[in-house]
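Consortium newsletter contribution from the modelling node. Members have asked for a concrete example of what our holo predictions look like. Here is one, prepared for the adenosine-5'-diphosphate complex that several groups have been discussing at recent meetings.
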Amino acid sequence: MFAKIRWRLLLSYLTVFTSILLIFAAGVRLLFARSLTEQLTNRLTTLGQGAATNAEFENGRIKVETDFIVQQLIHENQGLEWFDINGKSILKQGNIVLNLPFSPNQNQLIIKTRKTRIQAVILPIMGSDDRKFIGYIRVSQSLEEVDETLTKLDWILGSSIIIALILSGFSGVILTRQAVQPIEESFQRLKQFTADASHELRSPLMAIKSNAAVALKYPKAMRKSDAEKFQAIVSAANQMTRMTEDLLVLARAEKHHIRSEFSVNLTAIMFDLLSLYQPEASAKNINLKSEITENMYLLGNAGQLTRLFANLIENALHYTLSGGTVEVTANLVCAYLIVSVRDTGAGIAPEHIKLIFERFWRADESRSYWEGGSGLGLAIAQAIAQNHGGSITLTSQVAVGSCFTVRLPSVKISDNSPD
Ligand SMILES: Nc1ncnc2c1ncn2[C@@H]1O[C@H](COP(=O)(O)OP(=O)(O)O)[C@@H](O)[C@H]1O
Ligand SMILES: [Mg+2]
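And here is the predicted structure:
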């Protein structure tokens, strides 16, 4: 149970931490990419402004001088294009020259080609004499370097996140263990207390029971009303004894997983229980039917398994009205023993199904405790099934009946196995 809590805690911690890291990494990348693009835009603008001075307006036309300085300014991943006022290309220089139609409305653009991305800046050219608008210049640069830097950043961020997650995973395991340990310890102490208290209550209960029984041996020596009171004491003591035994079984059963070397004959247990409960069924006019496969074995504790199925059959008989049917079947299906106890009794409402295995839970709280019932029967049954590596499930319909199915891992029959 605590292992599950620890894992859940660790998982939630890692989920939150991963989300924070991812948001942080995305923010860093976004800012970095934006700053790189801005830097490039500034560089291209400066270059464009420098190169624009080479253009002159002569005889009603823009004329560009391709002098040595411009050639020197351009890097191999940059390009320059001059356009006249109508957007007609006048001159191209450099490697990156966009073969796209010119649009003066866009003063900045990023274009994706098959190989790389290209960033371009478009600037107006003003005549050097009269500062009149004479054309446009488009400066472009491949974003290969920027993309390479961003890829490097992605790798650094990605690997940092993975390393951070591994480290926090390790520390998370230690931290969650430390966090859960005190709860686990107090839970164990509480369980130990339940076990000790139930154990210690046995003797005084026994004393009460035997003293009341002794007093009842001579009913004539006392008033009728006193005898009734003693009878009530015996009955209450019986009920308390059963309850403390149930609590003891529950506290012990949950302590450890059974790793028994003993194979238990489930077929024999089922037949014994059926003959044990047959008289009660007959007395209540309930048809107790069975279909039990021969030679079914499993590893475990015979006493606990008897308790598990006795609880189910007892419940079925108790919660079924006279004239009803209780059917017990036990089969071997794919290495699992499937035992089901089906009744045509009161049934259980859908909203109660998930509560039914809780300790002390009873469908009708107001109903007085029947001799033998404490609300712990199904909690015990489930603990025993789980301790044997199995499970117990329930299907039920109100006023139609219920079916409890126990699934336990079987073991191959060995003839000399002790039962
Ligand atoms: N076969 C059944 N049919 C209808 N209700 C059932 C059946 N088995 C158990 N229940 C319901 O589940 C509750 C818990 O059962 P259990 O743990 O055995 O306690 P108890 O039998 O002592 O009341 C019962 O009080 C009853 O309301
Ligand atoms: Mg019961």
